Amino acid sequence: MQNSDYTITIIEDDVLQLENLETALSSQGFKVNGFSNRQEAEASFNVSLPDLVISDIILGNEMDGGFDVAKKLLSYDRAIPVIFLSERQSEFDIHTGHALGAIDYLPKPISLSVLTIKVKNLLRITGSAHSDQHQENSLIEGLELAQNEFKAYWQAQPLELTATEFEMLKQFALTGEKGVVTYDRLQESTQGVVERNTINTHICRIRSAFRKVDPDFNLIHNEYGRGYSWYQK
User: Fold this and answer.
1) What global pTM score does this model have?
2) Contact, 162 vs 80, CB < 8 A?
3) Is residue 109 scored above 80 in pLDDT?
4) What pLDDT was estimated at residue 40?
5) N or C: which end of the chain has fewer CB within 10 A?
């Protein structure tokens, strides 16, 4: 898929920053819709959902406006990846952003070149998945994949995963029980969106998604120095 096939929504209350973000991504061929407040952005979702949302956390007088946007996106059947840009860099804020499904949480001021690369890598993941003409089947009993929707099901219960977490979980599904999914494979599966030193954080969130529907879940284990594997102890 070409960059022009993707629509990106940007929500930023600083007009100058919004213009800079719009210009940087539009120059790469993306379709960009910019909004300075949460209400107008959410109204646009009712007309057409974007392929990616980039949002500040503080929007006008709303200290958690970006988080509220992420909550709204979780209500749709299709998973919409979110990248947060914020000066708020506390562990609590970063955890909250990721817990709401954010695929990345980047500090301000942001390098526009770094952001552009991250956006391209992320949309390459989603684009390649949507263009697949075959369905990759899970080798793990009880774990089902809905590739085109970036959704996974455990014992018929939907898991709350971001697109990145789905791609990482898919590596376990395609490897099967007891096979090792290496760190390199997990990183490659996300087209570089996930860095080596953050893989464990994403695995922890994947485990948490399972435990929301299965409190006793304990099947993903660390293989020291190699990666992770799926098995029953």
Assistant:
1) 0.62
2) no
3) yes
4) 96
5) C
Torsion of CA 129, 135, 138, 143, to 10 degrees: 80
- For residue 151, the tally of other CB atoms under 10 A from its CB is 18
Residue 150 has what pLDDT?
73
The total of other beta-carbon atoms located within 10 Å of residue 141's CB is 9
